[in-house]
Write a structure and sequence with these properties.
Elements (H helix, E strand, L loop, with lengths): L2 H16 L4 H8 L3 H8 L7 H10 L14 H7 L4
Helix pairs in contact: 2-3
Amino acid sequence: MDLFIQEIGHHLQIERRQRGWNQTLAAGKAGLSRREVSEIENGIFRGSILKVQQYALLLGLSLSLEIRRRPTLDELAGIFNED
């Protein structure tokens, strides 16, 4: 399992529980199925990131992603150069 996805789900679950909502109620409010909410909260959802964002917004959270380019092998030498 991806720890990043699990962490997102855990935060969303905490927010839902603080509102006193069960998964069925939260799913209905977010326009998702209860199964989707369960999968999101358990870090196993493999659907659209837009659905995760939709759920986060319902709970008053924002979801932001950052796209970074990985360094190439040639660039790695410069990163670890200890001159």
